[in-house]
Write a sequence for this structure.
């Protein structure tokens, strides 16, 4: 499956493949056997460069956060529900 930009980081969480792409976007893709899932862009452009690190942290009752690192030399945490 083509995703529009080169994947630079990948994580698997709750049946979803999370991708950090070279264009700076973070996307999720349902994990399917046939590879015909629909790509969902969670966030566009972390920075002007690439997303190199990607992880999902479960905070229990406080929800989840997506942690990213990129060419802008920052580590950011995003609330999944509020983006």
């Amino acid at each position: 499956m083509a995703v529009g930009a080169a994947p630079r980081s990948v994580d698997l969480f709750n049946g979803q493949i999370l991708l950090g792409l070279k264009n700076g976007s973070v996307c999720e893709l349902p994990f399917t056997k046939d590879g015909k899932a629909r790509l969902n862009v969670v966030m566009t452009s972390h920075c002007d460069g690439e997303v190199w690190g990607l992880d999902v942290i479960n905070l229990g009752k406080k929800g989840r956060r997506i942690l990213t690192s990129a060419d802008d030399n920052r580590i950011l945490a995003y609330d999944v529900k509020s983006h």
About this structure: The chain has one domain: 7-79.
